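Why should sequence recovery work at all? Because a backbone constrains its sequence more than one might expect. Tight turns favour small or flexible residues, buried strands favour hydrophobic ones, and helices have their own preferences. The token representation captures these environments compactly. In the example below, the structure is given first.
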């Protein structure tokens, strides 16, 4: 089994993004704005939508097709 962190910079950026998303959502909620749920949903889904727009295959979440592509790369 491979270690999932092959690119430490991407790993840290991902976690920084998640922490900042929670921080922004908390700040919006603390200002008593009702948009906190919308901001959290938008922040959670936008990286996936941007990746699909840039060419990520739509079956990227399909486990069998991901394993098939991984085996072809080896």
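From this structural description, the recovered sequence reads:
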């Amino acid at each position: 089994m491979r270690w999932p962190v092959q690119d430490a910079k991407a790993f840290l950026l991902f976690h920084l993004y998640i922490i900042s998303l929670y921080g922004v959502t908390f700040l919006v909620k603390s200002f008593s704005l009702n948009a906190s749920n919308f901001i959290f949903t938008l922040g959670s889904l936008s990286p996936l939508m941007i990746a699909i727009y840039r060419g990520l295959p739509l079956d990227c979440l399909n486990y069998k097709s991901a394993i098939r592509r991984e085996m072809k790369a080896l």
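A few observations help interpret the result. Residues 8-73 form one domain.
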